Amino acid sequence: MILQTEAIVLKTMDFRETSRIATFFTKDYGKVKGVLKGIRKDHKKFGSNVDKFSVNDIVYYQYRNSDLHLISQCDLRNYFFPIRQDLKKSLAASYMLELVNSIMPTEEENRDVYQLMAEYLQSLGEVADTDKLVYIFQIKILALSGFQPHLDSCLKCHKKIVGRAKFSTQLGGLVCLECPLSDHAATILSPGTVASILHVEKNDWSNSLRLTFSASLKKELKYVLNNFLIFHLGRKLKSEKYLG
Ligand SMILES: [Zn+2]
């Protein structure tokens, strides 16, 4: 079957003498892996160099019995020059690619994730505060991939959370200060941090961008989001150490 879609390049690797294998996150079919035959020999064969995080229009032959398909056309749509000119922003883009590649299953359509990736890349080129974009992306991808933390009420006594509360990565959410908790890695979250996460979960990308992220909020978000993601992925991401 021949399929056509828009696709963001997650990663690539050289394949045999002249070819390259690329993993894309596509708008219509989710994560798709394909081989671009002869791309390293004939640079004019494809209308794109398949660089990381570029957006391309692709056409591919979908094989039934393999998850490695044949990419017949790949034309560049957006290269994101402003991101590539800034080291921190390119690292933040690479972190997003690695996170999506780890968290999303193969060949399962998810338009919301595609849109989130496109909005994140667009904003990376326009918004100065890179850390804020990373935190908003992390909160939204957790929710979209089914790992949304429980923040509305205490996981033990089910009372509504008012004021500070303990966040347990193991339990996946908040426990009030009155309830006993054996998770020694739990950290205290301030009400402002909880409110910011809930705001991002409930609002679209552009409304989430309007939030102001103070230094103390960023510190709490960085700790809690990174640990929560590491717990669910079962490992650290290679690109993680570059994050601010
Ligand atoms: Zn409680």
Description:
- By secondary structure, the chain is an alpha+beta fold.
- It folds into 2 domains: 1-79, OB fold (Dihydrolipoamide Acetyltransferase, E2P); 81-244, Recombination protein O, C-terminal domain (de novo design (two linked rop proteins), Up-down Bundle).
- 35% of the residues lie in helices and 23% in strands.
- The chain contains 7 helices and 8 strands, in the order βββββααααβββααα.
- The strands form 2 sheets. A 5-stranded mixed beta barrel has the order 1-2-3-5-4. Strands 7-6-8 form a 3-stranded antiparallel sheet.
- Strand 4 (55-61) and strand 5 form a beta hairpin.
- The longest helix is centred in the C-terminal third of the chain and has 19 residues, at 215-233.
- The termini are far apart.
- The model has no long low-confidence stretch (mean pLDDT 95).
- Bound molecules: zinc ion (ZN).
- Zinc ion binds at residues 154, 156-157, 159, 175-176, 178-179.
